[in-house]
Design a protein that fits this description.
127 residues
């Protein structure tokens, strides 16, 4: 199925809706503008990589002292490796390219998100 471009009238209506959204709720409009198809898989991928590193550290640090804790670290590593593979497949080549381009453009800290700032903003909201 081929995509059909929007007519001028449809583009104008869409622009008006977008402008109304920016005027009525700028925070929601900003969140929507930052969200892509790959956002959820990328977030899961980041957590899986963090878990893999934690499992590796747990394995290395506990191998000489406690076998069961080292085995638990290995299991964490294995599960995180499976999650990395699954989320990388969900993102596909286009998603991975988009993530790497955004990391290059925004810098490493912005690419991984500023969780502290998001939490502060969440608690400052006057709902």
């Amino acid at each position: 199925m081929e995509a059909v471009p929007l007519s001028e009238d449809e583009q104008r209506i869409l622009s008006e809706i977008e402008q109304q959204l920016y005027e009525s709720d700028p925070a929601l409009a900003r969140d929507i503008a930052d969200t892509t198809v790959y956002t959820h898989a990328a977030r899961n991928l980041k957590w899986a990589v963090l878990g893999f590193v934690a499992g590796t550290l747990m394995l290395v640090l506990t191998l000489a002292t406690h076998f069961l804790l080292a085995f638990a670290g290995f299991v964490v590593m294995l599960l995180c490796a499976l999650a990395i593979e699954r989320n990388a497949r969900r993102m596909g080549k286009a998603g991975l390219q988009q993530i790497t381009q955004s990391m290059r453009a925004a810098g490493l800290r912005d690419a991984f998100g500023n969780a502290n700032q998001r939490m502060r903003d969440r608690f400052r909201r006057d709902d």
